[in-house]
């Protein structure tokens, strides 16, 4: 067996461990990229599955809203891609459907929620109210920007939604319009919360819609 003799100066030998460490990091990163390209690691594939599932849900609910004569608002494919990429670890609002009403009648609101995260989300609630809250950036101030002529509604009952990864839920709300209310358009809001039994809750996101009393 031949023997390899190193004749490098001492200054080079002192820097050799650090150089080897850098090489190992580079090789490890290259291996992860290679595995991802070969499909052994598939975050991109999982993301595509989320987008596909939500698109199918939106299409189904849009058809149901059309048949019921309701307004329908959802994320476009481009908006959906951006939203899921920005919220990879938690529930998002995917669509809303609602009708017009008359004074003394009800606005029936349907809200779709989807968990694009890799873990189960617990204690998730949707809070619905009227007012120009969506024009207010600060969540605390927005939640106080309320048209008190309409009720504030929260779904579901205790202990909130449990959303497993890739699971969707649909919540139903009935917003009562006061009998003496002016015939006009009004601003509605949906705030999505995660509210544990102890500690401070989290505003996951919000959406807005305009409903008409005619």
Based on the model shown, name its key terms.
single chain, four-stranded antiparallel beta sheet, alpha+beta, disordered N terminus, 214 residues, 4 helices
Low-confidence stretches: 2-42
- Structural class label: alpha+beta
Number of strands: 9
Gyration radius from CA atoms, angstroms: 26 Å
Given the structure, what is the number of helices?
Answer: 4
What's the average pLDDT?
83
Give the DSSP E fraction (strand runs of 2 or more residues): 25-35%
First-residue to last-residue Cα separation: 95 Å
Multimeric status of the protein = single chain
Give helix % range: 25-40%
The main sheet comes to: 5 strands, antiparallel
The SSE order reads HHEHEEEHEEEEE
Overall outline: globular
Tell me what the structure shows.
The chain is of the alpha+beta class and 214 residues long. The protein has four helices and nine strands; from the N terminus they run ααβαβββαβββββ. Strands 4, 5, 6, 8 and 9 form a five-stranded antiparallel β-sheet that branches. A four-stranded antiparallel β-sheet has the order 1-2-3-7. β2 (91-98) and β3 (106-115) form a beta hairpin. It is globular, with a radius of gyration of 26 Å. The N and C termini lie far apart (95 Å). Mean pLDDT is 83; it is low at 2-42.
């Amino acid at each position: 067996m031949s023997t390899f003799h190193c004749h490098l100066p001492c200054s080079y030998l002192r820097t050799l461990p650090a150089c080897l460490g850098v090489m190992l990091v580079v090789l490890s990163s290259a291996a992860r990229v290679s595995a991802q390209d070969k499909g052994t690691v598939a975050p991109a594939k999982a993301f595509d599955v989320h987008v596909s599932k939500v698109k199918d849900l939106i299409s189904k609910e849009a058809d149901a809203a059309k048949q019921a004569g309701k307004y329908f608002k959802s994320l476009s494919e481009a908006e959906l891609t951006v939203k899921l990429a920005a919220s990879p670890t938690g529930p998002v609002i995917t669509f809303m459907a609602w009708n017009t009403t008359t004074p003394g009648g009800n606005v029936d609101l349907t809200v779709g929620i989807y968990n694009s995260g890799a873990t189960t989300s617990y204690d998730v609630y949707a809070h619905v109210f009227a007012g120009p809250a969506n024009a207010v950036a600060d969540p605390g101030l927005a939640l106080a920007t309320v048209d008190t002529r309409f009720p504030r509604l929260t779904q579901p009952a205790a202990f909130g939604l449990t959303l497993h990864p890739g699971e969707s839920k649909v919540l139903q709300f009935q917003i009562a319009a006061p009998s003496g209310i002016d015939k006009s358009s009004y601003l509605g809001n949906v705030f999505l919360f995660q509210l544990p039994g102890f500690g401070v809750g989290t505003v996951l996101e919000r959406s807005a819609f305009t409903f008409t009393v005619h």
